[in-house]
Structure formats: structure tokens, C-alpha cells
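Support request from a user on the community tier.

User writes: "When I paste my C-alpha cells into the form, the page sometimes reloads and wipes my input. The last time it worked, I copied everything first. Here is what I submitted, just in case something in the input itself triggers the reload:"
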């Protein structure tokens, strides 16, 4: 069936910010869908609030709206753009929820807009636990017992009919949010209460807990002619009880018999037909009881999901692209497979390799977290690897995680630094708890001669996988000499691992390998197990005899990607890598992408001229360089990941394009950098590098407190912290870190009550272009990744602005930067302090690029290969619009975490608000972060003495808007003294009812709470935690409060404007 001619304009709804449970896989899926629709000649309109994505680059869609993804804003876009259809299936749960809301409100009917890719009935049936259960029973499929309840009373009645443990899941949430296991009545009631609050429909499903069952997923796609294709089978190595997003997974499924697989396949096809997904991709999850083979269907996602990105990268089948084309009328037998250009999309992919996905966790950022895995997703990213055997793929996956693991081998830091004494030994008694490193514990258990049966009993992991890990242990024990080099390489052992086994340096192993001609060959992911030649080579390494490819011809550059997403290094760096590909193409170079993140656009098969899905380690990258012999390598776009190996690459004689690794190292070496800034007469905060306990004590005698402490070797997950006294400093070091000559502790003067600025600039080694000066809304001391910022800087004197520009120019030239540079400044009393210099891409590059309509990373890539700034004719245009970037924090996932921000970054993503008015821009940013911005109600105010004058103006503005004020004793007395009517309320611990009681009773709609000093920062945690739980807008700085109040005063009619319209 040909494409539909009755549709001209399609609105694509994006997924919004990166949050735990909904990551950058939707940037990949959405970008692919948009490209597919544009290819077919449709006008594409996009709404997405995430500035960090390549999807929101204005060159992709005809109209790009960076607006809150709410039904109100989507309706305003529909009214303005008059789309014929909405594609809601590439924006995760966010897009589906908004599409359903628009339909319920009659908006789609009002404007005659249809949903394509999935219809309302299909979405409702799949997402409603009760309707899904009815549908599955209707076609004879088995399910775990499950009951939908709408109140706690219904839950109590249900307890009389079921036995515990049970899983409690809220309806219509992402990443298992609000899900938990209840083992007793008390936990059951608590879980139901929380689940009802988490669910947007106030419904909770109580399900049979299938503890220890094996979990599988099938990714499938259906066309308008009812052709259904199974794209990929995926097996979770971790058993049921751990969210699939937190599980280690492998494709294809390894432990199913052919009969079991065919039964599962037939059930998945029955499911997609019954649910009524007319066209597009779906994900169906199953559980199998290893004792008796009983198979039950767990759930079905009627959209492109997290697993769709993995399945696409695992097989080479572009699910989102094909799904988008099916949504506009095509059938599978009308679409070609882009990889082979010979087979049709109706061919089921066949693979002759093993794919492993490992989740990446950042528990060390959240001291309140137990680190135990459960039914609620907690991972922040993932890495994927490809090998010819499970053992090879599994080891490659571990070294792709960016955790200093050379494979399935734990690194003992004491081997590298003998001064480290306090090191937590491996605890193998907790094998029955899922955790980030359970597989390392499993390996250790095998080494300690626990039987496979014992380990299986404790973990629920299938014995097949345990035997494979046991085989790795056996190889380490019995085949650990140089003569076994080839065997070890075929089993995924890295040069570092083999060096440890043979007591040699990794460099010696590399030389021996090359001498013996033990080198990897490169195979292609082709969807057809080598039956047809791939036209878009997408490659992986293995140790066999023949290559599937030849080196690329012509001028070529390797771009090193960012690896798995984690807090501090997210999708922003993938945006930069993608832009670098476009820049190199414009400069006449072919690009070779090396990355191991399956969620990203940079690892799409048709982006770069060649893609290597490989770990970003020195060994793996050098193997590619040896094969491809590129003109050079770009390391400045993938965050810290490529920088870790830049020195080794340069020492190996590899040309690093752009800023040299020496310059990058100089900026990061505290002592060398201090020498440089002293020569340039640039001001920096005072600091100390303490290499032992005595030096810390000596420094504490003369230090100006508060100070910022940064240990380079961390125990117990505690990292940067602001401390306010000698006692606190000594106590912190004693509890949390060791100072050694190799791992010193860095102590910086903390400039309290200062304002912070971020600058992104381009330099070609001679000229400098200042792309943007951003002002943080929060005070200095909050990590720049967590701080909201406004562009252009809204409160900056000409003197300070001039000095910031001069210092940026001086440092960029002194560091001989070629490409991007980011600087962070603190300003207090008109004194400008340089806090940090990063001569590479930064996380603000996409934000500044979208504000200014200048593709900074694209230009930086071209500068790196020889172009000059003057070639681009860049101008500092004073735009009328203002943009606000707001961090999105994961406190809802870590409910006991302290919500006051500090120097340790905790955000998982960001949103952007853009408007001609700074208050409206801030309002849009807050709405994009999921806050309901109150227009009236009661505001709670508790501020420190230094903020009292500003709080007075804030309180007056709130009263003028129509708010009532409640305040703690000191604040209430000050406000009353100055004529502002307010009610005094107890602080936490002073009496009842206190402020937390009022928040819990829904009597507070807005919180302003500004802590300064040790006591205030640590005493008011319950206010912050309760506000997060109740989703109440909470501001912890007066500049933030001022911006929020201006936003509240301006909230009214929803107005939208496409990014392209700001630059007409």
C-alpha cells in the first residue's frame, strides 16, 4: 500500500528531558523517525523540551518547538500549525500520556487531527493493567495474577484473597516509577498508598511476584496489512524482580529451546494483533518459570521503547525509521532494508554474533541509596558490546562501562597505590541481592569454589550463564601464559587482563600480539548473517581469520564518542559528536565513529561513513587505528571518555586534531594551571593540594572557611562537599577519603554568596569567538550541571562582562585551543574568579547552539582540521529572546536523598525555556520539568539573614499576586516588621503542626527556603524531601525565587513560537 497522500503535516511529540526510566534512546528513535518522514516529503513539526538532543536541532524538522510537553502547549501548536496527524510513538511514555490527554479533552476531534502509529484503543488496552489482562485472557495467554485497585480500602480487601509477596505497580508511569515489592501487610499498605500517588490515573496493579523466573523480551513490528516481523529476542540474565532496564541483557535469547521460542513468538504476534497496534514497533515481555516451563506475558509497550534502540543496534534493523514509514501507509514488503539495499524490511533479521547490554549506575552520587536493584529502574545509562561468543561479548561489555574495568575483572586500587589501606573487601554473602556489580561477585564466588548449583540458588541466574563465567575463571587459572594469547583474545580478554595474568605490562602484550599477528578482524552487522553484502558497514571486532571490510579510502578522521550516559556526562556530548560528523563532511573528510552506547544518534548506522561499535579504551581504539590508518583522531567531543586515553594515543604517535592533549592536561593539572593563571594575572580561588593527613591539619589552621573538598580517591560514594570548620574538614576526611601522594585531596576556598557564569567559546589558536555568557540563577557552589542558567547573562555589569571576555580570550590563546573551550567564573563584589577551564566540548554547547543558531560543535570540528574562524563570518548578534536551561533532578527515584544542591552533580537531564521575556522563559523551563506552577495559594518562606532584603521584595510580589505567606519565626518577624502580613509556623523539630505537616496536608503550594552555613544546610532536609514527594515548586536561592515569582506573575495564555521563528 503506497504512502498516504491525505496527510501533509505531521506533529511528532518528543520525550522531553532525560530521566531515569526514559533516556536518550528516544532522541535516537525520534531523530530517525523525523528523517524518515522528511524523506517521504512530509512537513514535520516537533515539540520537545530537551535542548541537549540532536533531535531539537532546527535543521531536522520544518518547525522545532522547544516548549513544555503539556496538553496545553501541544494544543497551541496544533492550533497554529494545523497538522493532519500526530506521531506519539517515538516519545516514550511522555508522548503517549499527552496524546491520550489531548484525545480525552476532545482536542484531536476539535482540530480534526488523527493519531498515527498507535490508536487510542491500543494505547489504553496496553497501558491499563486491567484491560491488558482482559485482552490477554481473551486470546488464551497466561498472566501472573493481577488486580487493579483504586483505593487503599480496595487494597485491604484484596489482601484477604492473595498471598504475599506481591508487586505493586502504578498505571501509566515510566521506568517502573513507584513500583515495589511488598513482603508483609505493612509494606503492602505503604506501597499501595505511594503507588496511588505516583499513577496519573490513580490506579495501582497488584501482581503475583515471579521471583526467580527468567525474563525475556521480543521486539516486533506490524504493518497495515497485518504482516508481523520479530526483530529481536532479548534475554535478561538477571531473573524477574529486577527492572529490565537495570538487568544485564543478551541478544539473541540464549537459554530458550526452539519450541519455547516459537511459543513465545506466536504469543507476541497474538498480543500485538489483539492490542490493535495498527502499525509500528512494540515490545512484549515474558517470564518463564525455570522449574516447570510455565510462560506468562508480563506487559506490552505499544510504541518504540528502550529495548527498541537496543534491538535496532543489535540487529541493524532501523525500527523507528521503518515504524514511521509504516505509520504513513507503507507495508513491510514495500520498504527496502537500508543496510543491504537488497532485502526487504519484511525479512526477519538473522544475527551470527552475541550482543550484551550492561546498565550503568551512579549510586555513589546518592548517599541515601542502598545500591540494591528492584522493580523500580535506577540505571542512568547503558553500554552495548558485540562478540562472536557470549564470553567475548560479555567481557567487552564490562570494559565499555567506563568504570576502569578491563573486562570481567575487578580492579584492586591497592595494586596501583600501596598507600591505600582502607579498602572494602568483596562481600559475597549478598549474592541474592541484585546490584551493579553482582556479576563480579558471581565470578569471585566461582573462584572461591562455590558450586554452580549454590550460586544459581542464591541468584536465580540460569546455569548456562554461570557455566560461561566459570569457563572464564578456568581460562584464567589454566591458560595464563603467553602461548595462550590467541585463545585468551578469542574469549574477550583485554591486554590489561592478559598482562595481569602473565605479569607483563599491557604495552608488552600489545607488542607481542602484533609480532605474532594476533590482531582483531572486523565483521559487519548486516541483518542477514552475511548472506548479503552490507552497504553501510557497521562493524565490531573479533579474533577470527578474515575481515568483512576494507579500510575506508580518502581523508578520514576518527571521532571518539562518550560511551554510556552517566551523571556528569550525558546526551549533550553525543550531540557534539553528531555535529562533528556534519562538520567533517563539510570540511571534506570522511568520519569514523567509535562508540558503545546503543541509545544514541551517534551510533546510528547511517550517520558516520563508518561505525565501530567498540569499547573506548586505548587497546580497542588503537586496533581500529592500526586497521584504518586515519589522518587523525578527534577527542574533544565525547566528554571525559576520550580524554582519558588522549595521552596514550599521542604517545603512540597518533595525531590528535584540535586542542592538544598537553593543553587539556595543563588545564586539569592544578599546579601547572596555577602557574599559567599567575603569569596571565588571572584571579583564582585559593587552594591546597593535600597529600597526607598532616597537610590537611596544617591547612585547616590557616584556611578561610567555608572550603570545597574534593578527594580524588573516594570511599563510600562521598565526593565533593562544602565544609564550614576545621573540625568538619578533619572529620570529613577521616570518614570519607584517604589522602595519598597519588590520590591527593583538593581543597578550594569556597566563595559563598557569589554569582557564577559559564562561557562557551571557539578558538582557532589565534582568534576567539565568544558564543555565549550564561549566568547561573543559583548561587556559586552548586555544580554548573545542576544550576539553572539564563542566556544572555541577565545581571552583569559592563566591567565584569568585559573582564570575563578578556580572561576567556587570554586563556584560550595561552592554552592554544583549537576548537571549543568552556570556562566557569564566580563573581563577588565585582571580583572575577576563574573556577574551571575545559578546553573541550561542554554540556552547555547544545543549549548555546540552539539559543544562537550557531552549530558550535560543527564549526569546532572544522577548526580542528584546519579551517579558521574568519571562514565562518561569525557575529555576536544581540538577540531579543532569552533562554533558560533548567536541570532535571532524580530525587523522585531517590526519595531519601538530600534535595539541597551542592558541588556534586546529580541531575540526569535538562530542559529549556525560550521566550522574549526572561520570566516566561523560566516559567516554561519549570513546566517542562514537570512542575505545576501555582497561580495562587500559600507560599512558605524561610530565609537566611543575608537574603532578608531580597526576600522582602519577593514576599511583597507574592502578596500582590494573591498568595498568603507563612514563615518561620525569624523570617515572619522580619516580614511583619516591614508591613507584610504573614502567619508564623514552627520549624521542623520546634513543635506541631510544623511546615512539613502543612506541606503534607496540601496547604502549601510554593516553597522558598535558602540555607547558608552548616546548620541550615543540613537541618532542613525534611522540607525539601516532602516538597519533592508532593511535587511542590521549591526554590533554594533568592535569584531563583525572583525568577520563579516573575514566572508565576506572567502565567496565563499559552503562547508558542518555533525555534526557526526566532532567527527570521
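"...and here is what came back when it finally went through:"
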Amino acid at each position: 500500500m503506497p504512502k498516504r497522500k491525505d496527510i501533509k503535516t505531521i506533529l511528532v511529540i518528543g520525550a522531553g528531558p532525560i530521566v531515569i526510566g526514559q533516556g536518550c534512546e528516544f532522541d535516537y528513535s525520534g531523530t530517525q523517525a523525523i528523517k524518515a518522514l522528511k524523506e517521504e516529503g512530509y512537513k514535520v513539526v516537533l515539540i520537545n523540551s530537551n535542548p541537549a538532543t540532536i533531535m531539537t536541532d532546527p535543521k531536522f524538522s520544518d518547525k522545532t518547538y522547544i516548549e513544555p510537553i503539556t496538553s496545553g502547549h501541544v494544543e497551541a501548536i496544533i492550533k497554529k500549525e494545523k497538522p493532519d496527524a500526530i506521531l506519539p510513538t517515538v516519545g516514550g511514555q511522555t508522548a503517549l500520556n499527552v496524546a491520550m490527554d489531548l484525545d480525552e479533552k476532545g482536542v484531536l476531534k476539535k482540530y480534526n487531527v488523527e493519531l498515527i502509529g498507535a490508536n487510542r484503543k491500543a494505547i489504553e488496552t496496553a497501558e491499563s493493567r486491567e484491560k491488558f489482562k482482559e485482552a490477554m485472557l481473551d486470546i488464551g495467554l497466561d498472566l501472573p495474577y493481577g488486580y487493579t485497585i483504586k483505593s487503599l480500602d480496595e487494597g485491604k480487601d484484596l489482601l484477604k484473597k492473595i498471598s504475599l509477596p506481591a508487586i505493586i505497580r502504578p498505571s501509566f508511569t515510566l521506568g517502573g516509577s513507584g513500583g515495589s515489592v511488598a513482603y508483609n501487610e505493612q509494606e503492602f499498605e505503604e506501597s499501595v498508598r505511594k503507588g496511588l500517588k505516583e499513577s496519573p490515573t490513580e490506579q495501582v496493579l497488584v501482581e503475583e511476584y515471579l521471583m526467580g523466573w527468567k525474563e525475556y523480551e521480543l521486539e516486533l513490528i506490524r504493518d497495515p496489512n497485518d504482516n508481523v516481523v520479530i526483530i529481536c529476542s532479548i534475554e535478561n540474565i538477571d531473573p524477574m524482580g529486577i527492572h529490565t532496564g537495570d538487568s544485564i541483557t543478551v541478544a539473541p535469547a540464549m537459554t530458550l529451546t526452539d519450541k519455547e521460542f516459537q511459543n513465545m513468538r506466536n504469543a507476541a504476534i497474538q498480543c500485538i494483533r489483539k492490542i490493535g497496534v495498527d502499525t509500528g514497533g512494540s515490545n512484549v515481555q515474558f517470564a518463564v518459570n525455570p522449574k516447570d516451563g510455565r510462560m506468562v506475558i508480563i506487559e506490552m509497550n505499544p510504541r518504540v521503547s528502550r529495548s527498541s534502540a537496543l534491538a535496532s543496534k543489535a540487529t541493524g534493523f532501523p525500527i523507528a525509521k521503518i515504524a514511521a514509514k509504516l505509520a504513513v501507509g507503507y507495508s513491510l514488503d514495500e520498504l527496502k532494508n537500508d543496510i543491504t539495499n537488497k532485502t526487504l524490511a519484511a525479512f526477519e533479521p538473522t544475527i551470527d554474533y552475541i550482543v550484551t547490554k550492561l546498565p550503568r549506575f551512579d549510586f555513589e552520587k546518592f548517599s541515601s541509596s542502598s545500591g540494591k536493584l528492584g522493580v523500580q529502574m535506577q540505571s542512568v545509562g547503558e553500554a552495548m558490546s558485540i562478540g562472536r561468543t557470549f564470553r567475548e561479548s560479555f567481557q567487552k561489555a564490562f570494559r565499555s562501562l567506563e568504570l576502569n574495568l578491563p573486562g570481567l575483572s575487578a580492579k584492586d586500587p591497592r595494586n596501583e597505590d600501596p598507600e591505600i589501606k582502607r579498602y572494602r573487601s568483596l562481600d559475597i554473602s549478598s549474592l541474592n541481592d541484585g546490584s551493579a556489580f553482582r556479576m563480579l561477585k558471581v565470578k569471585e564466588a566461582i573462584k572461591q569454589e562455590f558450586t554452580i548449583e549454590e550460586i544459581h540458588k542464591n541468584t536465580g541466574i540460569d546455569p548456562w550463564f554461570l557455566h560461561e563465567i566459570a569457563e572464564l575463571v578456568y581460562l584464567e587459572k589454566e591458560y595464563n601464559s603467553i602461548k595462550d594469547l590467541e585463545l585468551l583474545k578469542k574469549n574477550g580478554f583485554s591486554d590489561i587482563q592478559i598482562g595481569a595474568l602473565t605479569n607483563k605490562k599491557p604495552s608488552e602484550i600489545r607488542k607481542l600480539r602484533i609480532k605474532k599477528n594476533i590482531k582483531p578482524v572486523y565483521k559487519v552487522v548486516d541483518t542477514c548473517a552475511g548472506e548479503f553484502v552490507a552497504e553501510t558497514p557497521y562493524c565490531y571486532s573479533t579474533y577470527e581469520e578474515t575481515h568483512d571490510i576494507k579500510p575506508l579510502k580518502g581523508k578520514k578522521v576518527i571521532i571518539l564518542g562518550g560511551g554510556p550516559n552517566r551523571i556528569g556526562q550525558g546526551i549533550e556530548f553525543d550531540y557534539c559528536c553528531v555535529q562533528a560528523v556534519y562538520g567533517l563532511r563539510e570540511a571534506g573528510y570522511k568520519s569514523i565513529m567509535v562508540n558503545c552506547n546503543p541509545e544514541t544518534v551517534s551510533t546510528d548506522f547511517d550517520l558516520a561513513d563508518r561505525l565501530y561499535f567498540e569499547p573506548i579504551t586505548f587497546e580497542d581504539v588503537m586496533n581500529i587505528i592500526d586497521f584504518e590508518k586515519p589522518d587523525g583522531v578527534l577527542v574533544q567531543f565525547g566528554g571525559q571518555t576520550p580524554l582519558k586515553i588522549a595521552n596514550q594515543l599521542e604517545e603512540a604517535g597518533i595525531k590528535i586534531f584540535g586542542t592538544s592533549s598537553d593543553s587539556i592536561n595543563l588545564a586539569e593539572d592544578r599546579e601547572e594551571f596555577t602557574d599559567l593563571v599567575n603569569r596571565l594575572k588571572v584571579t583564582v580561588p585559593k587552594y591546597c593540594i593535600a597529600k597526607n593527613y598532616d597537610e590537611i591539619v596544617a591547612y585547616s589552621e590557616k584556611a578561610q572557611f567555608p572550603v570545597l573538598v574534593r578527594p580524588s580517591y573516594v570511599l563510600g560514594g562521598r565526593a565533593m562537599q562544602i565544609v564550614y570548620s576545621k573540625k568538619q574538614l578533619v572529620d570529613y576526611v577521616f570518614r570519607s577519603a584517604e589522602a595519598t601522594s597519588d590520590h591527593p585531596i583538593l581543597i578550594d576556598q569556597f566563595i559563598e554568596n557569589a554569582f557564577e557564569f559559564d562561557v562557551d567559546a571557539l578558538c582557532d589558536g589565534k582568534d576567539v569567538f565568544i558564543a555565549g555568557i550564561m549566568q547561573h540563577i543559583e548561587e556559586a557552589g552548586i555544580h554548573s550541571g545542576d544550576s539553572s542558567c539564563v542566556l544572555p547573562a541577565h545581571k552583569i555589569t559592563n566591567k565584569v562582562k568585559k573582564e570575563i571576555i578578556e580572561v576567556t580570550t587570554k586563556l584560550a590563546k595561552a592554552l592554544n585551543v583549537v576548537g571549543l573551550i568552556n570556562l566557569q567564573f564566580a563573581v563577588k563584589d565585582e571580583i572575577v574568579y576563574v573556577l574551571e577551564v575545559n578546553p573541550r566540548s561542554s554540556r552547555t554547547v547544545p543549549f548555546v547552539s540552539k539559543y544562537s543558531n550557531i552549530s558550535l560543535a560543527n564549526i569546532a570540528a572544522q577548526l580542528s582540521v584546519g579551517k579558521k574562524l574568519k571562514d565562518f563570518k561569525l557575529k555576536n548578534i544581540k538577540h531579543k529572546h532569552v533562554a533558560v536551561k533548567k536541570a532535571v533532578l532524580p530525587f523522585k527515584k531517590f526519595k531519601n536523598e538530600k534535595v539541597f544542591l551542592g558541588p556534586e552533580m546529580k541531575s540526569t537531564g535538562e530542559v529549556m525555556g525560550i521566550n522574549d521575556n526572561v520570566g516566561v522563559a523560566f516559567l516554561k523551563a519549570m513546566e517542562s520539568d514537570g512542575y505545576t506552577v501555582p497561580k495562587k495559594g500559600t507560599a512558605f518562606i524561610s530565609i537566611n539573614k543575608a537574603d532578608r532584603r531580597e526576600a522582602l521584595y519577593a514576599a511583597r510580589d507574592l502578596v500582590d499576586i494573591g498568595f498568603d505567606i507563612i514563615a518561620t519565626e525569624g523570617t515572619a518577624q522580619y516580614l511583619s516588621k516591614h508591613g507584610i502580613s504573614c502567619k508564623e509556623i514552627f520549624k521542623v523539630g520546634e513543635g506541631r503542626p510544623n511546615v512539613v505537616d502543612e506541606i503534607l496536608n496540601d496547604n502549601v503550594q510554593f516553597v522558598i527556603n535558602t540555607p547558608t552555613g552548616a546548620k541550615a544546610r543540613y537541618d532542613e532536609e525534611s522540607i525539601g524531601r516532602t516538597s519533592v514527594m508532593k511535587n511542590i515548586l521549591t526554590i533554594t536561592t533568592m535569584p531563583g525565587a525572583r525568577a520563579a515569582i516573575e514566572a508565576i506573575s506572567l502565567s496565563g495564555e499559552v503562547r508558542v513560537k518555533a525555534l526557526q521563528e526566532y532567527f527570521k
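Agent notes: The reload is a front-end session timeout and is unrelated to the input. The mean pLDDT is 89. The two ends are 39 Å apart (CA to CA). Escalated to web team.
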